[in-house]
TrEMBL record:
It comes from Lophotis ruficrista. InterPro entries: Glyco_hydro_23, Lysozyme-like_dom_sf. GO terms for biological process: defense response to Gram-positive bacterium; killing of cells of another organism; peptidoglycan catabolic process. GO terms for molecular function: lysozyme activity. Keywords: Antimicrobial, Bacteriolytic enzyme, Disulfide bond, Glycosidase, Hydrolase, Secreted. GO terms for cellular component: extracellular region. Its EC number is 3.2.1.17. This is Lysozyme g. It is found in: Secreted. SUPFAM superfamilies: Lysozyme-like (SSF53955).
Length: 130
């Protein structure tokens, strides 16, 4: 929860640098489990012209490479799979940790990125991706 001072969020608790360091530590801890999905991630990334590191990072952050999941579902049973597809908005394809499912989620990601790019063509790639 954010601490509020005079109606403003205290930025020191949520600095970009601190967040990035936490993401790196999490990804390093997840690296062993990510190796199991290296080939499907690379295949999907190649087919969709994505950086495989982006797919791996999302898998790490969303589900800790399946560590946080129960039979593929989050605790509330709303999101499904390694990349945490919203089960109420999309019908999941394949088993929660299959290449088919990684492809489905990555395709949704590409569509979302393309929507942002169309709406904000003057933004840098990093801004569009964020």
């Amino acid at each position: 929860k954010a601490r509020v001072l005079d109606g403003r969020v205290c930025n020191s608790a949520f600095s970009y640098t601190t967040g990035l360091a936490m993401v790196r530590r999490t990804a390093e801890a997840d690296m062993v489990r990510l190796r199991r999905y290296e080939i499907p991630i690379k295949r999907v990334a190649r087919n969709l012209c994505l950086d495989p590191a982006l797919i791996a990072a999302i898998i790490s952050q969303e589900s800790r490479v399946g560590l946080l999941l129960d039979n593929g579902w989050d605790q509330e049973r709303h999101k499904y799979g390694l990349m945490q597809l919203d089960g109420q908005q999309h019908h999941p394809f394949g088993v929660w940790d299959s290449e088919e499912h990684i492809n489905q989620c990555s395709t949704i990601l590409v569509l979302a990125i393309n929507e942002v790019r169309a709406r904000h063509p003057t933004w840098t790639w990093d801004q569009q991706l964020r």
